[in-house]
Design goal:
There is one protein chain. This protein has 169 residues and is α/β, with parallel strands linked by helices. It has one domain: 3-Layer(aba) Sandwich (Beta-carbonic Anhydrase, Chain A), CATH 3.40.1050.10. The chain contains seven helices and five strands. Helix 3 (47-50) links the parallel strand 1 and strand 2 (58-62). Helix 5 packs across helix 6 (112-122). The termini are far apart. Bound molecules: zinc ion. The site of zinc ion has 7 residues, from helix 5. Zinc ion (ZN) is lined by residues 40, 42, 65, 93, 96-98.
């Protein structure tokens, strides 16, 4: 474990040296992100890298299968109410392990919170890519239903691990 910690500490040193101090200093007392991204926790799906943006630009929720449960709803409320974000993107991706777990009816203790939600979202769809997209669409509809009183645009997109292209659908 120590070598993992060392790797993280070393990485942080490189990060501090590699990025402009002024930009990060300007963000110490405020943030004005222009978009909320609801992405998967998957280590291969990194919104800031995929969209080539810097600190302060995106407010990001990452949860397995881009699932929105109570904790995520609270974060969305914060983004809409306090950060005044008007653009939300639900970002799905190919080879999503959470959707696969749901298709294969895997079980877990806390994991069921995610799997059950995805199962509800994809309702009988068997095709992997189709299920991934439907899960994102249902997440979008769920957010719209929960935040009826807010004015914001919400879209769904699909990140392809192979081409690294994001397709809006
Ligand atoms: Zn995923």
């Amino acid at each position: 474990m120590d070598n993992i910690k060392d790797k993280l500490i070393q990485g942080n040193k490189i990060f501090i040296e590699a990025h402009k101090k002024e930009h990060y200093d300007s963000l110490i007392n405020k943030q004005v992100p222009y978009a909320l991204i609801i992405s998967c926790s998957d280590s291969r799906v990194i919104p800031e890298k995929i969209f080539t943006v810097d600190a302060g630009e995106l407010f990001v929720i990452r949860s397995a299968g881009n699932v929105v449960n109570d904790g995520e709803l609270a974060t969305i409320e914060y983004a809409l109410e306090h950060l005044h974000i008007h653009y939300v993107l639900v970002l799905a991706h190919t080879s999503c392990g959470a959707v696969k777990a749901s298709l294969e009816e895997e079980k877990g203790h806390y994991l069921n919170k995610i799997i059950d939600r995805i199962t509800l979202n994809i309702k009988g769809i068997k095709d992997y890519d189709e299920a991934i997209k439907e899960n994102a669409v249902k997440t979008k509809e769920y957010i719209l239903d929960k935040f009826k009183d807010y004015s914001f645009e919400i879209e769904t997109a699909f990140y392809d691990l192979k081409s690294r292209k994001v397709t809006f659908f």
